[in-house]
Amino acid sequence: MTMDDGTPVTTVILPVLIRHILSQMEKQDMGAAQTLRAAFAKAESSHPGLSLDFVMGMLKQADLAVNMNESILRLQGSVADTDEYKLNRSEDSFQELNRKSASLKKILSRIPDEISDRKKFLETIKEIASAIKKLLDAVNEACVYIPGTTGKQALDQKKREFVKYSKRFSNTLKDYFKEGNANSVFVSALFLIHQTNMIITTVKNKCE
Hints:
With about 210 residues, the protein is mostly helical.
């Protein structure tokens, strides 16, 4: 399961699930947790998808059937962003971008619990649309601080990709109300989360 074959769970399982588990482990054994964190990061960088393969292997051993798209999306709402997806600069524009990024991901994470309640889900869709607009506004505010033409172009490219996946999410919702395929909505929401993370990473790389 990769970005190419229709699901972005490969890209979000490390920050959402594994790093969350390791953060809890740090309370018991800081050294071991940090060693594992570095090992997973290096392995995932060299072999994208390894983290997902690891988790799926454990689930298979336990004879558990789990919809990873639904599970990771739901879990997103209960974990804090790691430093990798959080801006450290203190200016209001950067902190506002942090807040809008976290807010959008939090709202998206509610989809698995609300999708079966049509009235509630329609309200959530409105919240998502508003959160997307606010995130894009925050990106524009932060763009002012990015030095050089190259940096601004890189962020503009990420913003265009985010808009593309936002439109894809909207189209997926239309299909869902016709066909009832909830998993496609989960996948599309995970794509949006990934694109949100990519915006933060780009700003971080260009400004910190």
